[in-house]
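DATA SHEET
Item: assembly model
Revision: 1
Owner: S.N.
Input lines:
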Amino acid sequence: MNRTRKTTEAGTAGEGGGLNPREAATLFEQTRLQARRQFEPAPPWLLVTRAAMVLATCGAVWLSVRGQHPYQGPTAAVLPVVFAFVAVNLGATLVVAKRATSGVSGRSRLRRAEIIVLAVAWVAVFVVMGVLAGAGVSRPIVYGLYPTTVPFIVVGLAWAAIMASRANWRSCGTGLAVAVVGAAGAFAGPAGAWAVAGLGLFVVLVGNAAAVAWRQRSTGPR
Amino acid sequence: MTDDALDPLIHVPARLRIVATLAALEEGDTLSFTRLQDMIGLTPGNLIIHLRKLEDADYLSSEKTGNGAASRTTVALTSYGRAALDAYTHALRDLLDGL
């Protein structure tokens, strides 16, 4: 195929409509930035909002449990805050991701097997938590250390493995960072683990937001 | 260097916006015709004309699935199209540096 000939024939005189190089550069940059923003399933504003929410939620739980001796777990007054965070976070994530990926198909979408792995990881950690509670394991472990460490370690590592298999190293790093936050919480005790989770996830999410914003503005290919 | 160094197929406002939008996708992804139309803001007829010119030059590939009302057309830049856009942006940068 003679590509040069076809290209030359396809561009007809006057189609540029007086587009000079500076206008072309501006139009290209504007369009690219706008498209990158519209295709981003986790935009910086959402990540920063999520970071603030996770810090506030884990901080509220930590404030409610830090004076408990022995540890009893989050108080009834703070549980609605946790459930509201989970609901708002999940809802906002789904709405934004659905809008961003509308009409997009191909390699960047999670495959069915990958979704199943993540779902199984999430369900398994809470099934095990129920089993531990039923088996009479102490409250500080079941309602303190476990929910603030194990889900982050298991799901973070599962996400990191999936992203590594796609050679998506930024997302792989995010998964590993979440797992590290979970592991660090295990050394902070049942009450301190909430503070570690809040602060750790805040840093991971804000760092991720900065990385996404930098990538959107970078001039190189994605 | 003059404007002649710019690929005439890309150096058209509508097609520049089309290739810039498609280049923002991850490599290996495709975009539906309707989403592309929403983002670019062209009429379907106009968009088809520009897409056909890009496809004739192997800058993009399109695929139609389904029939009738359920049919869906997706488009994506080819590796050749990405290379052409890279060459275009380099030429543009050289031109602006020379001004």
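QC remark: Residues 79-97 of chain B form the longest helix (19 residues).
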